[in-house]
TrEMBL record:
Its cofactor is Mg(2+); Mn(2+). Substrate binds at residues 90, 100, 128, 222. Residues 2-351 form the Isopropylmalate dehydrogenase-like domain. It catalyses: (2R,3S)-3-isopropylmalate + NAD(+) = 4-methyl-2-oxopentanoate + CO2 + NADH. Mg(2+) binds at residues 222, 246, 250. One of its GO terms (cellular component) is cytosol. This is 3-isopropylmalate dehydrogenase. It is found in: Cytoplasm. Its EC number is 1.1.1.85. PROSITE patterns: IDH_IMDH. Gene3D superfamilies: Isopropylmalate Dehydrogenase.
Length: 362
């Protein structure tokens, strides 16, 4: 089994280092190879996703990814910006199914900006289509308008589009995932305005005929955004397109109060996957040793379960994380009165210790 390790930028290197120590502690035999990605790759090779990095990712069974991006690259032309690396990996590896769980950990209920009763026990799975929609739709660009409100003016445009097979396959992923949970899927669209999403809604409804045991409902994206803060526990599996999924998954992650805890997986049709924390590169705290490594450590667990066929090892990591939280250790992002504040390394140490069953301090 081969893992491509792509730490990236900002806190990426620190948090991935801890996930690797946790993987090492499992005593399984993986081959791990590290490569540069994002701004770090741009600095070294002039491109955020160098050929060698892409080749490594393609050949691996799974990619463990940290985070990319830094404000200092905002002025670069678009193809050279760090974010292009993640988009390029999604596209080149065909990683169309993005799993973004939003779970509220019992011990962290107080860290949410919502009232505890609204989010205690929250467990939502957002399934975001990841290789289509306005993110990748062609044509896109800039030109002189020939029509619209200001003919002759400069304009920019992107294309929202979905093909039938793209919607069918993500709908199936969502129904299958719901089967292993509480058997409810909410498909989020904007069918009242957009042709693309009327098409989406029609196809999800058709595919649903193969899953009579699953309850399906449809919701407009604006309403979904509202319901997520009003009554988030009403949701189980949410399936939606790339753009809406980008927005709603940040909203859902934040309302758990534990964005530093949330892993994610992006899979292709052969279960090859890219695993990354749901949070970003946090350049403001990079290099300070204070970032929360748990989302990345839990992403490594998802990797073991989904791509490497090591469910038992995944369980060991997840139990270790729960144990560490129960013992009261917290990085700054999830710290509250009465708990012990620790840094990135100490948090990693504690998870490793829980895995190898040594005493945990604190
Ligand atoms: C995400 C991020 C990316 C996206 C960016 C970094 C390209 O926001 O994974 O949600 O928009 O998909
Ligand atoms: Mg996003």
């Amino acid at each position: 089994m081969k893992i491509a390790v792509l730490p990236g930028d900002g806190i990426g290197t620190e948090i991935v280092a801890e996930a690797i120590r946790v993987l090492d502690a499992l005593d399984l035999s993986f081959e791990m190879e590290t490569a540069l990605v994002g701004g770090a790759a741009y600095e070294a090779h002039g491109h955020p996703l160098p050929e060698a990095t892409l080749k490594l990712a393609k050949e691996a069974d799974a990619v463990l990814f940290g985070a990319v991006g830094d404000w200092k690259y905002d002025k670069l032309e678009r193809p050279l910006r760090p974010e292009q690396a993640i988009l390029g990996l999604r596209k080149n590896l065909g990683l169309f199914a993005n799993f973004r769980p939003a779970i509220c950990y019992e011990q962290l209920v107080g860290a949410s900006s919502l009232k505890p009763e609204l989010i205690a026990g929250l467990d939502i799975l957002i399934i975001r289509e990841l290789t289509g929609d306005i993110y990748f739709g062609q044509p896109r660009g800039r030109r002189t308008a020939v029509d619209g409100h200001f003919p002759g003016a400069e304009e920019a445009f992107d294309t929202m589009r979905y093909s039938r097979p793209e919607v069918e396959r993500i709908a199936r992923v969502a129904f299958e995932a719901a089967r292993k949970r509480s058997k409810r899927v909410t498909s989020v669209d904007k069918a009242n305005v957009l042709e693309t999403f009327q098409f989406w809604k029609d196809i999800v409804t058709e595919v649903h005929k193969d899953y009579p045991d699953i309850e399906l409902d449809h919701m407009y994206v604006d309403n979904a955004a509202m319901q997520l803060v009003k009554a988030p526990k009403k949701f189980d599996v949410i399936v939606t397109g790339n753009m809406f999924g980008d927005i709603l998954s940040d909203e859902a992650a934040m309302l758990t109060g534990s964005i530093g805890m949330l892993p994610s997986a992006s899979l292709n049709s052969s279960n090859q996957g890219l695993y990354e924390p749901s949070h970003g590169s946090a350049p403001d705290i990079a290099g300070k040793g204070v970032a929360n490594p748990l989302a990345t450590i839990l992403s490594a667990a998802m990797m073991l379960r989904f791509s490497l066929n090591q469910a038992e090892a995944a369980d060991r990591i997840e139990s270790a994380v729960k144990h560490v939280l129960a013992s009261g250790l917290r990085t700054g992002d999830i710290w509250s009165e009465g708990t012990k504040r620790v840094g990135t390394r100490e948090m990693g140490d504690a998870v490793v210790a829980a895995i190898t069953k040594k005493t945990i301090t604190g």
